């Protein structure tokens, strides 16, 4: 058995993949090839993704392509990439990118555990991301749907549509001639037969090919059997008319599916098509893949930023909505980071490229969204299995319906019951379910992406419906993850400005985030010659001489050690006490501010029926309690190590109901074990970090916790639409199956119950693309 690291993931675009049933058959057959660890064929995106052992990857790929063309000769597999199944470890820099460039204009992130004084565990991520070894450009360009199919296709371009309409029109005219001209006998049969072959010849041919390949039960077989049966019992007009109606319905179905695909593609159409490469004083229009790290590119108003980089010249307002779902444009100037996929609203800017296209933000997003279709929801898997068993059962039932009643009921004729059985067959096609359900889930994933929420599979989207407990990390999730001076309390004889100035001078040589926050609050230049004798006292603070005066800056233990009477503050946060020449000068309060969005997030989750909100943090209990009370979080666990967080999640698992799910929301950098342990792991602003890509199931591209409620709202809407389609399709089919069995429904109604229901279900699935109004 190979390890995951030895596996290779390959992807093909299946040109001409025209039906969901075909996708299902290909997936089932390819899965059985030896060495294939997973296979997913997505009808909505016309792609096949295959994970295989590395040793035999090329041989298995050939077998997979051969299997596709053997099952569906008109489908042409086109390989678009091969990559390691497990990505290289990615750094924390990417996590900061979206958070920084799209939200705060900074390129790094702090993670820390707050306590009193200077006792902090602090980490910073600055290393460059090791991106994927391949470019995703081809993949995305290939994922744009081809408009021309092969054989009978749902991919109707203008030329195809005109040809099909002419063929159907010709068949309809011949059928009308057979019905209204005074002909009979062999002449009538020949006219209707000609009409039938013009309208449905390709369906009969496809059915015959499938039977030769051992694939009997599909829509072509059912329709050919039903209409040829109608001819066999002398119902020529009905045989032709039903095939005509079926083909018109298929045409509409194909148009509806294409419209749905185009809507989803447009929703994620964030891939830049070109870049203006700066060469001296000239600009050359090139594809983004040609640009290298260190090159300079120019982006004009209205254009997409083609690659990640830093602005060298110019300033502009950036529309980040395609990546982050944020409606408010961001201001950028020289030194600001910008990501591929941003849209330049005004101003001409020159950017120094920091990443190849294959490693850029837009490529990672497309990778996540396109791979999301590999992880199917339970509902999708159920429908696949259901369809596989359902059609043979209906065919056997139809056979019994044709044969048994005439043998046991007096006065019953074979022709009457054969007709009823044929009606039964037409109704039985499970197309509405097999086509509309994957489209519904894919639409939901697309809507979430547009909202800045990347869902890594429809299984996770479906799981959000059952979430009753939401567990939050604190730092960087509910709070901004940045220290700021929130309190300035001078002692008698000192002013606020004096206290802040002394503190900033004392902290001028420290690289600690607390020191940085004090210097940022002071905001003025600090002359180096003013500071001498700098000495860090471990676990206590700093002793330093500022302009000839002995200054102490640190926690209460430092004041106690030096025999200086200090005040015990009431505020929660990190307290920095200051003393000048052994005289107490006052204290500063440094706190990690709660995000503006956090209270709204907790309120929205409560409104959605979330039973319990929990906060797990490594911070000191008073700080955690303060934040928890401010936000109305029901349960708070403080001073936890990463292992303690996992234990806390496991305890919640034991307490939850059998069908309830738990979300854990973390910053995607230091919460990997808990993200992996929860039913649904959500990484906040973690695009590009190893934890976000590998451990989280959902990545929220901004630092907005309220997007969790948005994700749950989209999941609920998607599930409603999917189950509407299931109930509608099965309900209509059940009614018509009964009517057909009792001889009330004709083939006309039967075809409506098949094709009409499918078209309506596909159109309903498109509603999943719209986010719910309530979020």
TrEMBL record:
Residues 76-87 have a biased composition (Basic residues). PROSITE patterns: ATPASE_E1_E2 (PS00154), HMA_1 (PS01047), HMA_2 (PS50846). Gene3D superfamilies: 3.30.70.100, Calcium-transporting ATPase, cytoplasmic domain N, Calcium-transporting ATPase, cytoplasmic transduction domain A, HAD superfamily/HAD-like. Residues 71-159 are annotated as: Disordered. The chain crosses the membrane at residues 164-183, 189-208, 389-409, 421-448, 726-745. Its EC number is 7.2.2.21. Residues 8-76 form the HMA domain. Residues 111-159 have a biased composition (Basic and acidic residues). InterPro entries: ATPase_P-typ_cyto_dom_N, ATPase_P-typ_P_site, ATPase_P-typ_TM_dom_sf, ATPase_P-typ_transduc_dom_A_sf, ATPase_P-type_domA, Cation_Transport_ATPase_IB, HAD-like_sf, HAD_sf. Residues 94-108 have a biased composition (Low complexity). The keyword Phosphoprotein applies. It catalyses: Cd(2+)(in) + ATP + H2O = Cd(2+)(out) + ADP + phosphate + H(+). It is found in: Cell membrane. It is a multi-pass membrane protein. Keywords: ATP-binding, Cadmium, Cell membrane, Ion transport, Membrane, Metal-binding, Nucleotide-binding, Phosphoprotein, Translocase, Transmembrane, Transmembrane helix, Transport. It is an enzyme of class 7 (translocase). Pfam families: E1-E2_ATPase, HMA, Hydrolase. Belongs to the cation transport ATPase (P-type) (TC 3.A.3) family. Type IB subfamily. NCBIfam families: ATPase-IB2_Cd, ATPase-IB_hvy, ATPase_P-type. This is Cd(2+)-exporting ATPase. It comes from Paenibacillus silagei.
């Amino acid at each position: 058995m190979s390890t995951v690291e030895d596996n290779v993931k390959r992807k093909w675009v299946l040109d001409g993949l025209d039906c969901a049933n075909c996708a299902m058959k290909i997936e089932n057959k390819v899965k059985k090839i030896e060495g294939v660890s997973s296979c997913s064929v997505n009808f909505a995106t016309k792609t096949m993704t295959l994970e295989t052992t590395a040793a035999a990857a090329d041989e298995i790929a050939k077998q997979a392509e051969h299997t596709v063309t053997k099952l569906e000769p008109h489908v042409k597999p086109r390989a678009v990439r091969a990559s390691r199944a497990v990505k290289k470890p990615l750094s924390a820099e990417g996590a900061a990118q979206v958070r920084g460039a799209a939200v705060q204009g900074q390129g790094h992130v702090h993670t820390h555990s707050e306590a009193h004084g200077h006792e902090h565990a602090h980490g910073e991520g600055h290393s460059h991301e090791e991106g994927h070894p391949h470019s995703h450009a081809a993949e995305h360009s290939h994922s744009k749907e081809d408009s021309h199919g092969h054989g009978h296709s749902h991919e109707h371009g203008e030329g195809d549509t005109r040809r099909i309409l002419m063929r159907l029109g010709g068949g309809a005219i011949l059928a009308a001639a057979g019905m209204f001209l005074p002909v009979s006998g062999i002449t009538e049969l020949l006219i209707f037969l000609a009409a039938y072959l013009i309208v449905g010849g390709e369906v009969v041919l496809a059915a015959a090919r499938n039977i030769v390949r051992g694939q009997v039960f599909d829509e072509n077989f059912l329709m050919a059997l039903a209409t040829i049966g109608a001819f066999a019992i002398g119902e020529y007009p009905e045989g032709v008319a039903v095939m005509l109606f079926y083909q018109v319905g298929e045409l509409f179905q194909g148009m509806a599916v294409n419209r749905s695909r185009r809507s989803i593609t447009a929703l994620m159409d964030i891939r830049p098509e070109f870049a203006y490469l700066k060469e001296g004083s000239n600009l050359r229009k090139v594809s983004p893949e040609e640009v290298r790290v260190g090159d300079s590119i120019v982006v004009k108003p209205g254009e997409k930023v083609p690659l990640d980089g830093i602005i060298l010249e110019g300033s502009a307002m950036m529309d980040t909505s395609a990546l982050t779902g944020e409606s408010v444009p961001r201001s950028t100037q020289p030194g600001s980071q910008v990501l591929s996929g941003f849209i330049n609203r005004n101003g001409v800017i020159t950017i120094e490229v920091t990443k190849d296209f294959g490693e850029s933000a837009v490529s990672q997003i497309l990778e996540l969204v396109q791979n999301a279709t590999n992880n199917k929801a339970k509902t999708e898997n159920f429908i696949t299995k259901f369809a596989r068993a359902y059609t043979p059962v209906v065919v056997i039932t139809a056979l019994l319906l044709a044969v048994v009643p005439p043998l046991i009921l007096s006065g019953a004729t074979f022709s009457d019951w054969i007709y009823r059985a044929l009606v039964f067959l037409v109704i039985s096609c499970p197309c509405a379910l097999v086509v509309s359900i994957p489209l519904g889930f894919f639409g939901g994933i697309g809507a979430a992406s547009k909202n800045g929420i990347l869902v890594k599979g429809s299984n996770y989207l479906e799981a959000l419906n059952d979430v009753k407990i939401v567990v939050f990390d604190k730092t960087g999730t509910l709070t901004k993850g940045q220290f700021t001076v929130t309190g300035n309390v001078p002692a008698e004889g000192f002013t606020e400005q004096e206290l802040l100035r002394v503190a900033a001078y004392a902290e001028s040589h420290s690289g600690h985030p607390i020191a940085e926050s004090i210097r940022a609050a002071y905001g003025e230049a600090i002359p180096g010659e003013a500071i001498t004798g700098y000495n860090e006292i471990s676990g206590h603070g700093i002793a330093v001489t500022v302009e000839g005066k002995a200054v102490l800056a640190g926690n209460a233990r430092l004041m106690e050690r030096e025999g200086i009477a200090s005040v015990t503050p009431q505020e929660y946060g990190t307290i920095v006490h200051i003393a000048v020449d052994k005289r107490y000068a006052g204290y500063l309060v440094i706190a990690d501010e709660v995000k503006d969005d956090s209270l709204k997030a907790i309120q929205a989750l409560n409104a959605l029926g979330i039973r319990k909100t929990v906060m797990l943090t490594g911070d000191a209990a008073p700080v955690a309690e303060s934040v928890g009370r401010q936000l109305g979080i029901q349960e708070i666990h403080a001073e936890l190590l990463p292992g303690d967080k996992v234990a806390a999640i496991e305890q919640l698992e034991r307490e939850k109901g059998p069908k309830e799910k738990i979300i854990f929301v973390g910053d995607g950098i230091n919460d990997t074990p808990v993200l992996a342990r929860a039913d649904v792991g959500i990484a906040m602003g973690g695009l590009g970090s190893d934890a976000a890509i590998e451990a989280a199931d959902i990545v929220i591209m901004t630092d907005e916790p309220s997007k969790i409620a948005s994700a749950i709202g989209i999941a609920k809407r998607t599930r409603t639409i999917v189950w509407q389609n299931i109930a509608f399709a099965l309900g209509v089919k059940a009614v018509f199956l009964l009517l057909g069995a009792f001889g009330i429904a004709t083939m006309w109604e039967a075809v409506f119950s098949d094709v009409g229901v499918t078209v309506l279900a596909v159109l309903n699935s498109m509603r999943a693309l719209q986010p719910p109004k309530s979020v």
